[in-house]
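Hi support team,

I've been running sequence recovery on a batch of backbones for a student project. Most finish fine, but this one hangs at about 90% for roughly twenty minutes before it completes. I'm not sure whether the input is malformed or the queue is just slow. I've pasted the structure tokens below so you can try to reproduce it. Let me know if you need the job ID as well.

Thanks,
M.K.
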């Protein structure tokens, strides 16, 4: 079984657990694991497929009282709680979750909340699904909830992440209303995989939410730059292109968490080496240009410029 097939088999288990809650057969499901491994994507896809918009998504911040009120206001809905680790550390929230995640045999699960000024009591017949980067074992006050939710761990290996990205690349990628064809997507993938080889921790979010948008943004700005160069040759007004930074520098900076950018000399030296490799690897001009564009995203004029510079420096 290859990596992609293995992932799909594991995804089936996650989807079954979500459907069990969506159909009211079990009261809750807890999925945990590192961010950027598509936990929320699997859950929301399955909820949409089974319930349409008849479920409620909560994220970011919620208090125990907010949780109680949300369940009371929609007691027969499925509530999906995403990235709410602070809520899971709240002792009052733990009590509400214990009550809400009780057995479904008797129908509704009674939830009560009593203060000196008021008493709230209601039956909850819906379900609760939680996606978290941390396991319930890290929240001691939720120990009793763990036995009811039967938490499942979800994490993709680096090889599995590569398999998911490769599968997407073969089909082309949609991003923000724009599309990368398989060739362009493969160009972005190859760079991201090279970062993995350098020791960077790459997840799906690194590729789909960071590398791909950075490439598309650079492609747009680089197109503007090419237009400016044409205007310059015609002695027409143009804007400065000093704002343009290569997309690979942007992606590397995002992953490193630092403002690290190649100097102009470093970038040109790297591009000259790539141009020479492309020249040696192919016999025809068309194949050389194809390799050059796949590896850099640049057009033929840049290739000829780098080859000319390489010859002048003795590299070629």
């Amino acid at each position: 079984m290859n990596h992609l097939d293995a992932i799909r088999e594991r995804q089936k288990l996650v989807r079954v657990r979500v459907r069990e809650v969506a159909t009211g057969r079990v009261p809750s499901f807890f999925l945990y694991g590192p961010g950027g491994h598509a936990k929320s994507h699997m859950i929301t896809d399955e909820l949409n497929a089974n319930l349409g918009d008849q479920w409620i998504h909560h994220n970011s911040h919620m208090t125990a009282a907010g949780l109680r009120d949300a369940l009371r206001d929609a007691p027969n809905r499925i509530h999906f709680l995403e990235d709410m680790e602070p809520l899971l550390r709240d002792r009052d929230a733990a009590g509400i979750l214990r009550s809400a995640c009780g057995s479904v045999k008797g129908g509704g699960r009674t939830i009560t909340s009593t203060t000196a000024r008021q008493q709230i009591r209601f039956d909850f017949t819906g379900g609760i699904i939680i996606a978290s980067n941390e396991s319930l074992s890290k929240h001691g006050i939720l120990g009793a909830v763990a036995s009811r939710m039967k938490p499942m761990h979800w994490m993709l290996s680096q090889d599995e992440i590569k398999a998911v990205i490769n599968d997407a690349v073969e089909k082309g990628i949609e991003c923000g209303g724009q599309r990368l064809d398989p060739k362009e997507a493969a160009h972005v993938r190859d760079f991201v995989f090279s970062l993995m080889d350098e020791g960077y921790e790459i997840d799906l979010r690194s590729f789909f939410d960071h590398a791909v948008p950075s490439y598309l943004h650079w492609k747009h700005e680089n197109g503007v730059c090419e237009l400016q160069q044409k205007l310059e040759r015609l002695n027409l007004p143009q804007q400065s292109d000093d704002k343009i930074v290569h997309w690979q520098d942007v992606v590397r900076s995002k992953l490193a968490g630092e403002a690290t950018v190649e100097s102009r000399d470093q970038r040109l030296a790297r591009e000259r080496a790539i141009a020479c490799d492309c020249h040696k690897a192919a016999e025809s001009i068309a194949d050389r240009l194809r390799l050059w564009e796949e590896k850099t995203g640049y057009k033929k004029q840049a290739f000829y410029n780098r080859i000319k510079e390489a010859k002048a420096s003795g590299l070629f």
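--
Follow-up from support: It reproduced on our side and the slowdown came from queue contention, not your input. The mean pLDDT is 86. No action needed from you.
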